[in-house]
Design brief:
homodimer; alpha/beta; Rossmann fold; Dihydrodipicolinate Reductase, domain 2; eight-stranded mixed sheet; six-stranded parallel sheet; about 35% helix
Chain lengths: ~375, ~375
């Protein structure tokens, strides 16, 4: 039974007070929650997106897709999901007949994003897909086309574009307080372990650039509001321990934006490289660190003639997942096009392809 | 009259206590101070190197070269320098006849470094030259040859290579505690004002890469202990206000080292870009910031299984100038080759030339 508008408002206000950031979304009076089918029960679904839905007034997990029935039943019980709403990768297309499913959440290895997005579209469902969108430009375009054909929404989970402290950074830049933006540094990486799918070229499509470097790429774009026009890059493998037979270990790239802004970025699977972005303007600089994590996003800024700024988003994980999920639920309910739609994901895929080409590699 | 060894030791101990870092140098018993002739009375001479000598037991300012006699006389009085030890750019070669001058300190616009180094060598003096060494590889080699021919020392003022907190960072990396080094980010830049010689291509030879980017270049080399083998770069001009008719405003470059370490660096004259270096290893990371300034150099490190490290060099400006000056004085007294000799400067000049070429520019 839907909550009244007033009850919604009270609960949202309570959440907002907790997080110190107002939640921008309020579902239309009388609307039901958007039902999500989890496609893939890995760390991000189980540890983040599903707990995020638990805190939401707009999104709920109503179905699961997994190759492991036992595992699915265990989590179905925790989320009050009936056994009839558990699917596997073979009977996945039957979600078409399930009205409890409005949308799917694709949290599979990268190379499977396209297939499961297209099958979801054919089943008449909206698609919320983790980044990177796919493992090729062609697949990305096919995903966009499949969703458009059936008039369903496609959103790529660029979580940072919905995170309040990242939004503050954008606002600070757009306000002109930093002056003319000149340069950006960014990095993001972690130490990946042998055996993980991210090291398998067929499943991942690429190395750390695909998985974590894309945060620096996407942030450089949303912070400047520009699209990069040129790329140069190097990749390297230092650890000859069998982890990097398919994918690169390290990748450094530079990009030039039309205004002349230059960005230099690093990514790696060989070191725990804290995610940061630093933006230099003629009138000041800002530094986001951690910039891309699930909680504790911190913004520091030094602007000429103003006191130093130092703000941390106090919201705890999975608040960011609640927020991006609610945004997509609102898009579905209101018919609004998501700001991080398929085209946004496609652009990054095109840039990733060009970065790989610049260092003599290619998407796998 | 020279101090006794004991008096020296006491005064050095007092200085060391002040700075929390032991001074590594102790002049040989009975040795006199090395006499320096300042070539160029700009900010770095007057504000840093000369005050640095005042605090030194090994170095003293004994002569001045300036195009402005009044200015020279004013500072000569402050430093008890006799009027006979004031030179101008015409009679500069007469320093040959002045036994109070052991060495010259070259703090002129970049394009003048070669000429005044070579004339000093011909006058039989040792040369301590500010970075960048020169404005061409050819000039750099000529400077090395000129000093070698007369058997005089040539040291390039790579201050950071003598600064204790930078040295701690090197030590931390060499100890293996950071594991295998994978990647480096670095930046350094400042907002330069119209009319300054640094914006004049003929005097500067290049833009921020020459003047401040060279810190990131040099630090990437001394921190890894490797020589970069490949470079890619972009430059840009964003501010069309007449400052950047000759030199670049922004420059981003990436370098590959033989081990596979990748470094990405930014420099600018369009923003106050705090100097930093961040080094990522498989077992931890270190961050130097400020990394290159005259005081307050701070080292933070996160190493797996160890408490976080956060150390700041408490020594105040001009302690770094005292230290690098004393190092060179010790080289002169003991016959030791400076670690940042002409060849060290030449290597950076070669890399700078390659970075400019990589972005379609050249040394000016």
């Amino acid at each position: 039974m839907p909550l009244t508008r007033r009850a919604f408002a009270q609960r949202l206000a309570a959440t907002a007070a907790l997080s110190n950031f107002p939640s921008p979304l309020l579902p239309a009076e009388g609307s039901r929650k958007i039902g999500y089918c989890m496609v893939g029960l890995g760390r991000i679904s189980l540890g983040h997106f599903m707990p995020g839905c638990r805190l939401s007034q707009m999104s709920q997990v109503t179905a699961l897709v997994s190759g492991h029935r036992d595992k699915a039943e265990k989590y179905a019980a925790q989320y009050n999901i009936p056994a009839s709403n558990i699917y596997n990768y073979e009977n996945y297309d039957q979600i078409a007949q399930n009205p409890a499913i409005d949308a799917v959440y694709i949290a599979l290895p990268n190379s499977m994003h396209a297939e499961y997005t297209i099958r979801a579209a054919k089943a008449g469902k909206h698609v919320f897909c983790e980044k990177p969108m796919a493992t090729s430009v062609k697949d990305s375009q096919a995903m966009i086309d499949a969703c458009r054909t059936v008039n369903k929404k496609l959103m790529i989970a660029y979580r940072c574009q919905y995170e309040p402290t990242n939004l503050r950074a954008i606002e600070l830049i757009r306000s002109g307080k930093l002056g003319k933006i000149q340069a950006i540094e960014s990095a993001n990486g972690f130490h990946e372990t042998l055996g993980e799918w991210r090291l398998n070229g067929k499943l991942a499509g690429g190395g750390p650039l695909m998985d974590v470097g894309v945060y620096s790429l996407n942030a450089s774009r949303f912070l400047t509001g520009e699209e990069p026009v040129e790329f140069q890059a190097y990749s390297s493998v230092i650890d000859k321990d069998g982890r990097f037979n398919d994918v690169e270990e390290n990748l450094s790239w530079i990009m030039r934006f039309p205004s002349g802004v230059l960005a230099s970025c690093n990514t790696t699977y060989g070191a725990n490289m804290p995610g940061f972005v630093r933006v230099h303007g003629s009138n000041g600089m800002l530094h986001l660190e951690p910039a891309f994590g699930y909680e504790g996003i911190r913004l520091q800024a030094q602007i000429k003639g103003e006191p130093a700024m130092d703000e941390t988003n106090p919201a705890k994980d999975p608040a960011q997942f609640t927020r991006e999920g609610d945004y997509f639920s609102d898009c579905i309910l209101s018919g609004k096009e998501p700001k991080t739609n398929g085209e946004e994901g496609l652009r990054d895929m095109q840039y990733i392809e060009r970065i790989y080409r610049a260092c003599g590699r290619s998407l796998l």
